[in-house]
Amino acid sequence: MVENERLRQEMRCCEAELQELRAKPGAPCPGCEHRQESAQLRDKLSQLQLEVAENKGMLSELNLEVQQKTDRLAEVELRLKDCLAEKAQEEERLSRRLRDSHETIASLRAQSPPVKYIIKTVEVESSKTKQALSESQARNQHLQEQVAMQRQVLKEMEQQLQSSHQLTAQLRAQIAMYESELERAHGQMLEEMQSLEEDKNRAIEEAFARAQVEMKAVHENLAGVRTNLLTLQPALRTLTNDYNGLKRQVRGFPLLLQEALKSVKAEIGQAIEEVNSNNQELLRKYRRELQLRKKCHNELVRLKGNIRVIARVRPLTKEDGEGPEATNAVTFDPDDDSIIHLLHKGKPVSFELDKVFSPRASQQDVFQEVQALITSCIDGFNVCIFAYGQTGAGKTYTMEGSPENPGINQRALQLLFSEVQEKASDWEYTITVSVAEIYNEVLRDLLGKEPQEKLEIRLCPNGSGQLYVPGLTEFQVQSLDDINKVFEFGHTNRTTEFTNLNEHSSRSHALLIVTVRGMDCSTGLRTTGKLNLVDLAGSERVGKSGAEGSRLREAQHINKSLSALGDVIAALRSRQGHVPFRNSKLTYLLQDSLSGDSKTLMVVQVSPVEKNTSETLYSLKFAERVRSVELGPVSRRAELVSWSSQEHLEWEPACQTPQTSARAHSAPGSGTSSRPGSIRRKLQPSA
Questions:
Q1: CATH code for the domain defined by 308-628
Q2: Which of 215, 266, 319, 355 has the most other CB atoms within 10 Å of its CB?
């Protein structure tokens, strides 16, 4: 330990000298190889110090172990001394008892003859003496047993003493071995400390020599740097002058920059204002030209007799569900309300129609687009408006609406009533209404006494080529209450059922036929206009709608009639000589509206959800085909009546039913009707 302390003091002295060398000016450069060698030597020195520390730790552990074993040996020796003292005491006690026993035996032997005699005598004479003798014999036996026991204990103590001697010998041998190991470790430590001291001295000498060399190199480098500084002073003066000049320029730069920014901002603002004004002017011209183009297009369509087509997109509802299949797949052009875009299978498809209504459009917005056609019915033109689209797309809502928000049907009659009232001073008008449906290719009268009775479509016998339905009930309406009663009764008789696609799916094609007959009181001119409002049943896929049984048969008839309508549109579009109107009751009944003597408008209803994009694509393609059909110019149905016959004029229907027909289409002047009594009390037939 003294040697270790001396080595530590020398090492501290060497470290102090090394710190002084490092503190001197001209320290070695960072990349010098001598510095690397010095670092290596320091690492080696730290490793040696670690080894010394480890040896010290081992030595302390050995000292601790020797101390523990010495303590154990002292404890064993104390225990051995205690055992020996106890053994000596026991031996002394046993020997004392043994001497007492020998003395008792000797005394008893010395007194044996009289005892024998006495015993014999006692045996003859006294039982008490016999009992005392037996007690003495028992006590003697007990003393002999105790002597044997004490001998056994003595033997065991001798064995323990022998084992204690053996353990003491083993411990002394271990102590000797530990002392030898300690001496060997101490010798090894002394040798290692001596070698470490030699290595330390050698490393210090080498480091000192390298430090001197490095100091010399540093002095040389310092002389070179001073020379370079003397040469760089003129360049530094030049740079200082340049820096001062730049600094003066930088001080004035913010003012110059602000002035430049102000001028640039003014120019940019002026340019933006000019561009905005130009854009506003161009946008105004574009919108004006777009309106003129649409006006010219509508006029051209009217002159050609094209079928006008408008599209209406219903809003998203809870029935559409959630998830990716319920996302919106329809978008609109913000600048052109006749363009609709559909995203089908990841590809955008665009369609151009006459008008496109977004889901935000109201019933009034849609009606404003069609009210001009409805008004022309009063002037003697035939008008047909029919709604087309898949099941659940909103056709019935557009045509019929709800009690608080009515659709085209009720708004059309309200418009006709208002127009008739405005012209009441010069014209006399009569408005009659019929409601029919085509269910499973069977034409039925929804206002008749027997709604299930089949009706047929006939040609007028007067040779005009027009069609009529014998037996179809016709009622005159004069107020909104009459209209509501007719609609309520017709809606009650119409066939609707529940499907997977629509909770109240229309299973038939509904037709509202409004006939307006007018007469000019001053000229005697008579006009007859007919307004057909058709709510077509929705096209549907059987797999999606889940139709079975009678629902499946209904779906087949609906799809067949709509397919026939597509064939008629294709034939009209390609200007074929034969148009297959008779392939379906629907197309046969709409022959007048699709053959060129009517103003026809189609409302295509589409669903915006992703899962219905296939049906939406088909509906929009069909709408484009319908839009390209030219029906030719429309003629007005009017005739002039002579003044002499005006007072006795009787109104006749456009086509008079033969007298032999049992169920005739009621004429306005006949005063007869086939309505049931309950309805007749509510509505007065045309008189």
A1: 3.40.850.10
A2: 355
